[in-house]
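Re: beginner question about structure tokens

> Can someone show what the tokenized structure looks like for a real chain? I only ever see the sequence side.

Sure, here's an example I had lying around. Input first:
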Amino acid sequence: MLPLPDAVAADLDALLDRALAEDVGPGDVTTEATIPEGTRATARFLLKEDGVVAGLAVAERVFERVDPGLAVSWTAADGDRLSAGTVFGTVAGRARSILVAERLALNVVQRMGGIATAAARMAEAAAPAVVLDTRKTAPGLRALDKWAVALGGARNHRAGLYDMVLVKDNHVAAAGGICPALDAVGRYVRKTGREVPVEIEARTLDEVDAVLDAVADGARVDRILLDNMARRTDSGLDVSMLEEAVHRVAGRVQTEASGNVTLDTVGRIGATGVDFISSGALTHSVTALDVSLKVGLDAG
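And the corresponding structure tokens:
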């Protein structure tokens, strides 16, 4: 089993406690009403579609949090690609405890597996461009969402507002333009001494030229975010503006494309020569991986 990333481990127990309190409250009345206290069972995790499994270590912690006496065993690891019909884990012990933990464990594995599977497919289609996630994650679940992205083979963008200067259109508007915004960034970096990457969004070719002029004058820019330059038209995806932007940048800084990024479009976007492609859909429009947990009574 892969170790939990620090960002996940730091708040996991508190997160699971909140989730269990939300779901179980003062007690699972259905389970208490129907299952004798001494009943023991074994449940199997079954994958019902091809995909990348993720969240197994978290699901194991769910069972442990509900009942340390539950025995969890996996035949796969986080990030493994499996085929539909694969049984990839079991949990055995008190039937009541398994049923109490079932929904939360499945929610984690289904959501993280859906993200990891989407990330794997998109990363393959985009190569050699690198697919990135965004901050469009479920509130409170960002560490889990981003871990699932990484398990699928895509890469994490910034974790939050604190680890990267990312000057977007609203920052540019509020600062009075691209040059004033980059001037302000330079003053901030010099004043604070914070060594963080600097990225700025450009929505037009004129804005790309403005960023490149600022770079030539000494502005600190590590990457240009080429936003919505791949445009949907009646005849399909038009990437001509994005191609021209990449041509103008000519490798002087890194390039990142965003907007209209789906599994169907990411290959064409990647073929323009951009270095990175960011996709909010990986985490804001999750299709859960189809996983079930089937309980069977132990003999005896």
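Each token stands for a local structural state, so reading them left to right follows the chain. Residues 65 and 211 are 51 Å apart (CA to CA).
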